[in-house]
Amino acid sequence: MSEDKRPVTLKIILIGNSGVGKSSIMNRYVNHRFTNMYRATVGTDFLSKSVHIDGDWVSLQIWDTAGTERFQSLGTPLYRGSHCCLLVFDVTSTATFSALDVWRKEFLVQGEPEDPSNFPFLVLGNKTDLGNREVSRRKAQQWCEEIGAEYFEGSAKEDVDMEKPFVRAAERGLQEYKKHTLENTGHFQITCEQPRGTPRNTCEC
User: Fold this and answer.
1) Partners of 49 in beta bridges
2) pLDDT-based confidence at residue 46 (cuts at 50, 70, 90)
3) In a domain, 27, yes or no
4) What torsion do the CA atoms of 101, 118, 173, 38 make, to the nearest 10 degrees?
5) How many separate domains does the chain show?
6) C-alpha span between 46 and 200 (Å, rounded)
7) What end-to-end distance do the CA atoms of the chain give, in Å?
8) 111 in any annotated domain
9) Residue 192: inside a domain, yes or no?
10) Domain membership flag for residue 3
11) Cβ–Cβ < 8 Å for 15, 86
């Protein structure tokens, strides 16, 4: 933590195909709410939550992204400055799992992390409450081992294991922050923030 004891702000981004439940996951973790009314994210949306990690108060700025090609041009300004990335898929859809490799590579190209080979990725499989599962835990874990990511799964609808991936994202993100932001004198991470009163889903970065 900085000497003036202000909370460290970490940018955590959720990416993946449309419909995998990114908004539901974010709202379940931050607001402890879930709705069956599906509304596709238009552009971007974010929520904040403060957590205590390794003796530091950390403010998580959690970004939910549109998973459609129409909004992928937002990736460059949105991805930059991220401290951890959650790759999200639907365990009942093989297509959403297969797409994760493309999302990951796109993030590395557009986000331009300082150390791409060691940037912290977490993978989160959602909708485990449904019975028509197509992607097994073992298959997901094997892919995560190949890319050096940690795997989590659960259900936003049933509130099953939705906190664990965010706690881990905060831990890994804090490590990333300390490794790059604090060690590089004069270097500041630029994050995409909105002033108070700015309408959601718009960003002038």
Assistant:
1) 60
2) confident
3) yes
4) 0
5) 1
6) 8
7) 26
8) yes
9) no
10) no
11) yes
